[in-house]
Amino acid sequence: MKLAFDSLDLTLRGREILKTVSGQFQPGKVTVILGANGAGKSSLLSCLAGLREPQGGSVTLDNQPLFSLDNRERGRLIGLLPQRPDIHWNVDVKTIVGLGRLPHSGRWGMSDADHQAVARAMVATDCADLADRKAMRLSGGEQGRVLLARVLAGEPRWLLADEPLASLDPAHQFDVLERLKTYARAGQGVIVVLHDLTQAARFADDVIVLKEGNVLAAGPREQAMTAETMGEAYGVEIQMGTSATGEPLVVPVRRL
Ligand SMILES: Nc1ncnc2c1ncn2[C@@H]1O[C@H](COP(=O)(O)OP(=O)(O)OP(=O)(O)O)[C@@H](O)[C@H]1O
C-alpha cells in the first residue's frame, strides 16, 4: 500500500507552512524526514496522518484520497506517534497501550486478538514489566516507549513517528530504531522525523529533506543525505565519515 502526497499546500494563520510539496513513501522501508526547526516536518506528518486537511493537494493511499476514508479505517491504516507526547491520565500502562486497539475493537470491547497485539507491542518496546504501573508516574523515556507501544499495538500499515528518540537513552534509541526497522521489513511503511543525523544515516532507507516548507532533497539515503544538502538544510557545516567499526557518522562542526 503506497502512501503519497501531491502538491500539498498548507497555510496556518496566514503563514504558508507547506509550499506545494510532493513525494511518496515505499512500504517495507524506513523513510526519515529531516530539516531544521520549523521546516514543516510535523506539519507534513499531521497531513499524512489525516489530522490536518491541507488547503491544496492531496494525500493518497494506493491512489485513494485519505479524506475519503472514515476515521476508524484511517486509524487502522495509519498510526501516529506525536512529538513530545505527555501522559496525564491516571491509568496503568496496559490500558494506555490498549487504546491503540480502538480502531480495531468491536462494541464488546477487546478481543483475544486485541489483547495479544497489546502484549506483543509491550514486549517489543521493553514495556512488559511496566504493564501495571501508573503511566503518569513513569520517567519521560519510559512514557515515550509506552506511547510507541500504543501505536505498535494498532498494527497500522503506516507508522508515523515524530522524533521518537527524544528523551531516550542511547540503548533505548537503538531499540526503538531497530523495532521500527523490523516493522518496516515485515512489509509495513515507517516514516520517522529525526534530528540525530548519525542515527538517520544509520537507519534510513530513504530520506526527505525539508527546508522552509519545500522539499530540498528526496530519495535513497546515500543520494539525498549529502554533506552539502545537510549543510543547506541546517545552516551548519557537516562532516560525514565512518566509525572504526564501519557505521556512518554525520557530525555538525560549525554554523555556516
Ligand atoms: N497551528 C499553527 N499555527 C500557526 N503556525 C503554526 C502552527 N503549527 C505550526 N506552525 C508553524 O509552522 C512551521 C512549521 O512547524 P512544524 O511544527 O511543522 O515544524 P518542524 O519542522 O516539525 O519543526 P521542529 O523541528 O521544531 O519540530 C513553524 O514555523 C511553526 O511555527
TrEMBL record:
Alphabetical UniProt keywords: ATP-binding, Nucleotide-binding, Translocase, Transport
Signal peptide (residue range): none
Residue ranges of every copy of the ABC transporter domain listed in the record: 3-237
Gene Ontology MF terms: ATP binding; ATP hydrolysis activity
InterPro entries linked to this entry: AAA+_ATPase, ABC_transporter-like_ATP-bd, P-loop_NTPase
Record-annotated membrane-spanning stretches: none
Source species, domain of life: Bacteria
CDD domains hit by this protein: ABC_Iron-Siderophores_B12_Hemin
Coiled coil: none
Function: Part of the ABC transporter complex HmuTUV involved in hemin import. Responsible for energy coupling to the transport system.
Protein name in the entry: Iron complex transport system ATP-binding protein
Species whose genome carries this gene: Parasphingorhabdus marina DSM 22363
